Amino acid sequence: MQGIPGAAVRFERVQKSYDGENLVVKDLNLDIAPGEFLTMLGPSGSGKTTCLMMLAGFEPATNGEIFLNDRPINNVPPFKRGIGMVFQNYALFPHMSVAENLAFPLQIRKMSKADQEAKVKHALDMVELSEFGNRRPAQLSGGQQQRVAVARALVFDPELILMDEPLGALDKQLREQMQYEIKHIHENLGVTIVYVTHDQTEALTMSDRVAVFNDGVIQQLSPPDVLYETPHNSFVAQFIGENNKLTGTVASLKDGACEVKLDDGTMLKADAVNVNAVGDKTTLSLRPERIEIYNNEDLDNLIEGTIKEILYLGDHLRVVMDVAGNDDFIVKVRNKSMGWNISEGQKIKIGWSAEDCKALDAVV
Amino acid sequence: MQDSSTTTPETLVTADGVPLKQKLIQSTRRARLRALLLTLPLVIFIIVSFMIPIGQMLFRSLHNDTASSVVPNFAIAIQDWDEQGLPPEETIKLFVLDLQEARKKREIGKTVGNLATRINYEIPGSRSLFTSSARKLARVTEGPYTEALLDINKKWDDPVLWRSLKRATNDITPYFYLSALDLKYDDEGNIIEADELYQIYVSNFVKTVRLSATITLICLVLAFPVSYLLSTLPLKTSNLLMILVLLPFWTSLLVRTTAWIAILQTEGIINDILVFIGLVGEDGRVQMIYNQTGTIIAMVHILLPFMILPLFSVMKTIPPSYMRAASSMGAKTFTAFRRVYFPLTLPGIAAGTLLVFILAIGYYITPALVGGEDGLLISNLIAYHIQKSLNWSLGAALGTLLLAIVLILYWLYNKIVGIEKLSFG
Q: Is there a domain that residue A2 lies in?
């Protein structure tokens, strides 16, 4: 058995195929610690939901074993796993009231009427819906339904809760509010949460660790800040946050730092993250907010570019530039009281430090 | 300048000063008129082909002038008779004259035979009395008419006969409803049970309801798993299977029913197979047709799509995540089905059962072909009275009772299930 004992959830060499020809999940190994908030993040079709469904027991793993508290659960049916789950469209039973929905798992567990009522009340209080017990789900707003779904997944005190894109159907403002609420519930109860989403903001704000999925493989498993600051490969850099790409060849490589010769001949200093040897093709990844356009004489990298478009976004300006052959190069300029003295069509010098420029694998 | 609508909020007016409500009606009048005009053909069609015939049926079940049109003058006079002894000479004179007139005219629908048939419903065996008496009365030219009548036949000296004549010549009569409920008037005009030999309608109504309920139940049991399968399969497969479900709709009802005769009869396919594999002997062939079994089998087959379609359309809307959610909360598959899936299919079940039951309760052609005597339904009796015995009023009364039963059941159904919850898909 790989990994340390004591993990709440362990995927061990798990593979999944629906048609016997393509692997949706390829050799997944993942340990989730008790009390952790782990997010599976990825584009649709990346295998993240399939992983969740295998964990919940709705899809069998084609190969490998899944452990729940060190107990293999491949042959345990979903109703015996004791995992709470929040579904994408909440799956609240429309023919039951909110209170009946919450009491459902308790009735299944043959809990006494008094205990049921106490637990339902407690759960409703937790999501601040104590007044709504007698309503039908259809009489609630989307956000309220979402909270009921969370309360229903929590009400029978499972140690593990799975959430399958629970905020996908909500509008932006409500989504942000629910992110905080779910995060607080997690902090207060100390349950393990496995959360699936394709929204990187959700993943970054809520999680202890994020597993970025692509093509059935975890591309990177890190805390949110590490994920953003030091992406392991181009996919993660591209998927998490905004990112500028510059392609080139490694010219020199020494002590984790390298020099890259861009396709147009410009030489840039970069942090060597995912390059092996001189002569490798590489993609430089660069966050728009790390690029400076003023007082930039002492920076590691200086390069000239043409301003194509300036978008005013209130707190910052979004400047689209043509830099070293990339005509979709984004620079975020902080909005200062002294204003900005740039205009479209102007040629300016921009710069950034070598630390903020990551040399990653070449995008094929 | 102040807007008048803000000063008097009770009666909102438009900028031109016209009350807002009035203006709203005006502005939407054209659209509403057009919508009404578009539905007009259907409304007219329903009134002409549906409402009027039903009204006529209701009227005919209560109104019957077969008797009074034969003896019109007598029919009016007899209504004043006090039902003691024989009617007065004056009334009997009118009766004799009317009969003579009717014999002469021989107008279709107004012959003595019609009157005789009508009285024969109430006093079986009295038909010949009328026809022979009418023949002999042709020679009677002067009174006293009572004596002349009694001379022809002693049976005329019976108040019962005259009382039944009085009832029969009264155009508005509950008589046919009484018949349809196996009741009749006794000699004193009280309502009593009909003779046992003639008690056929109530038991047939009961049988019709019972068979319809059986057929509905079998349809539900058969349709539920099929609909579930259809609703869960991928679209391509389910469409193909749906065509198989709908295929019977594209075949003539008559062909389908006669196909069952070929399959089920004692010399039919099933019996041949049973004999061939030795399950029954040559002399032990099973009677599966021309009885209730035949009616049930053939009607289940014909009505099954009406159960599958509403069930399917409801099941299609139940997302699989409901069962998964129940399962994740610890419910075993059967519990999840019972507590979550099944209650959500109720609108479909309600619609399907209502549809099949109401269709079954009025079904005619299939029981007529495969029902034999035992498997006949009430509609077959109605058809008999409309087509064979020509007792249209009794047919109409039976039909009205059938309509009433359906409406009562529908009302009960609405009370229990709630019609707004039905989903016909």
A: no
Asked if residue A248 and residue A353 are part of one domain, the reply reads yes
Pairwise CB contact (< 8 Å): B324 & A77: no
Report helix, strand or coil for A243. Answer: coil
Cβ-nearest to B343 among A78, A95, A162: A95
Do residues A160 and A296 both lie within one domain? no
* Whether residues A229 and A248 fall in one domain: no
Parallel/antiparallel/unpaired status of strands A160-164 and A23-32: unpaired
Specify whether A51 is located in the same domain as A171: yes
Backbone angles phi, psi at A219, to 5 degrees: -80, -35
pLDDT single digits (tens) A232-266:
999 999 898 888 988 899 988 888 889 898 888 88
B335 contacts A56? CB cut-off 8 A: no
Residues in contact with A278: Cβ distance below 8 Å, sequence separation at least 6, in sequence order:
A250, A251, A252, A253
The answer as to whether A190 is a domain residue is yes
Chain B's closest residue to A108, CA to CA, is B331
Q: Which residues of A touch B343 (CB under 8 A)?
A: 95
Q: Do residues A50 and A186 share a domain? A: yes
Domain limits of chain B?
4-62, 66-173, 201-421
Distance between B342 CA and the closest CA of chain A, angstroms: 11
A42 with A177, same domain: the answer is yes
CB contact under 8 A, B331 and A79: yes
Which residue in the set A79, A109, A152 is minimally distant from B327, CB to CB? A79
Is A156 in contact with B330 (Cβ distance < 8 A)? yes
Nearest chain A residue (CA) to B329 = A105
Residues of chain B with pLDDT under 50: 1-6
Minimal Cβ distance to B322: which of A80, A91, A153: A91
Q: A234, A250, A275 — which closes off a domain? A: A234
Mark which of A205, A234, A263 sits at the end of a domain: A234
Name the DSSP class of B248.
Answer: G
Residues in chain B closer than 8 A to A168 (CB atoms) = none
β-strand pairing of A192-197 with A160-164: parallel
- Write out pLDDT tens, residues A179-219: 988 999 899 988 999 999 998 889 999 999 999 999 999 99
Which of A199, A166, A147 has its CA nearest to residue A89?
A: A166
pLDDT at A272: 87
Would you say the ipTM is above 0.90? no
Q: Which of A84, A88, A94 sits opposite B328 (nearest CB)?
A: A84
Contact A91 B330 (CB under 8 A): no
- Give me the CATH number covering residue A310: 2.40.50.140
Give me the CATH number covering residue A146.
3.40.50.300
Residue of B nearest to A85 (CA): B328
State which amino acid sits at residue A123. A
- Which residue on chain B is closest to A95 by alpha carbon? B344
Instruction: Identify the residue among A19, A104, A136, A163 best suited for mutation to test binding to B, counting B beta carbons within 10 A and taking the highest.
Output: A104
Buried residues in B184-219 as b, exposed as e (16+ CB within 10 A): bbeeeeeeeebeeeeeebeebbebbbebbebbbebb
Cα(A211)–Cα(A28) distance, rounded to whole angstroms?
11
Closest chain A CA to residue B347:
A95
> pTM to 2 decimals?
0.79
Tens of pLDDT, residue by residue over A121-166, are 999 988 888 899 999 999 999 889 999 999 999 999 998 999 999 9
Q: Do residue A142 and residue A174 come from a single domain?
A: yes
Range of the domain at A140: 9-234
Q: How would you classify the pairing of strands A160-164 and A83-86?
A: parallel
Which CATH superfamily, name and number, covers B201-421?
A: MetI-like (1.10.3720.10)
**Are residues A171 and A34 part of one domain?**
yes
Extract the tokens encoding B189.
């005009």
Out of B322, B324, B344, the one facing A58 most closely (by C-beta) is B324
For chain B, say whether A286 makes contact (Cβ under 8 Å): no
Min CA distance, A84 vs chain B (Å)? Answer: 6
The H or E element containing residue B392 is helix B392-416
Q: How many domains does chain A have?
A: 2
pLDDT tens digits, residue range A50-95? Answer: 999 999 999 999 999 999 999 999 999 999 999 999 998 899 999 9
Cβ proximity of A102 and A152 under 8 Å: yes
